[in-house]
């Protein structure tokens, strides 16, 4: 009895989200201890009140960790890795945002439904008897349903932040959808114009170097490796366009003078 009590007390401090294998391990140990008593000749029916007692204690541990998990579920789900990419003139995520959301909500549902599938130690007396012993655990979901609103509200805010990460690269790739040489020729007139843009481009290049290789949005890790390579390529293309158009403008001016 006291050995089982220690294990149940221990479960009160075992993270239900991050350490589910540990929960299963401890539950298996408790069931093994109870099963050993049956092997010693104590009938399942006689132990039923005792089993029910331990299910009620497990209920307390499960509900405590479930409530703790609801507070941190948005940051504690399994890590989801995504990339910011620029393909065919479109800025987006890989995998696509809808796929990210689908995986996210699937992982969240697994946690929210744990009490629904949780099995205690109060087994049915016979194979033909309905097992009503575990019906106490699904009640945890109903009793804590009021917290679901905050969970989903945090989720919406999390995806807003994820979208903000994507939008922060919009200006970086803006030149990727235009004819750079045509833009330079239409926008620049004097040598000073070119000089100013050369300087600005060098500053922009240094700024690009400071973009972090990863950005964390709670459990979502955004890799910027691909988009940084794209930005470097666009900066180089713009530099080449500036050089080409400056040379072309100089040749035009010389021809005009001649």
Descriptive report:
Helix content is 65%, strand content 8%. By secondary structure, it is α+β, with helices and mostly antiparallel strands. A four-stranded mixed sheet has the order 2-1-4-3. The termini are far apart. The model is unreliable at 125-130 (pLDDT under 50).
List the helices and strands and how they pair.
Blueprint: H1 2-11, H2 20-39, H3 44-76, E1 80-87, E2 90-94, H4 97-112, H5 114-117, H6 139-143, H7 148-167, H8 180-187, H9 191-209, E3 214-217, E4 220-223, H10 225-257
Parallel strand pairs: 1-4
Antiparallel strand pairs: 1-2, 3-4
Low-pLDDT regions: 125-130
Q: Mean pLDDT, rounded to whole units?
A: 87
Tally of helical runs: 10
User: How much β-strand is present in the residues?
Assistant: 5-15%
| Helix percentage | 55-70%
Could you give the order of strands across the largest sheet?
Answer: 2-1-4-3
Head-to-tail CA distance between termini: 105 Å
Instruction: Report on the biggest sheet.
Output: 4 strands, mixed
Order of helices and strands: HHHEEHHHHHHEEH
Q: What overall geometry do the principal axes of the alpha carbons give? A: rod-shaped
Class by alpha and beta content: alpha+beta
- Determine Rg (CA atoms, Å): 31 Å
Number of strands: 4
Question: Which terms would index this structure?
Answer:
alpha+beta; 65% helix
Give a quick summary of the entry:
By secondary structure, the protein is of the alpha+beta class. The chain is built from 10 helices and 4 strands; from the N terminus they run αααββααααααββα. Helix 1 (2-11) runs parallel beside helix 3, helix 3 (44-76) runs parallel beside helix 7 and helix 8 (180-187) crosses helix 10 (225-257).
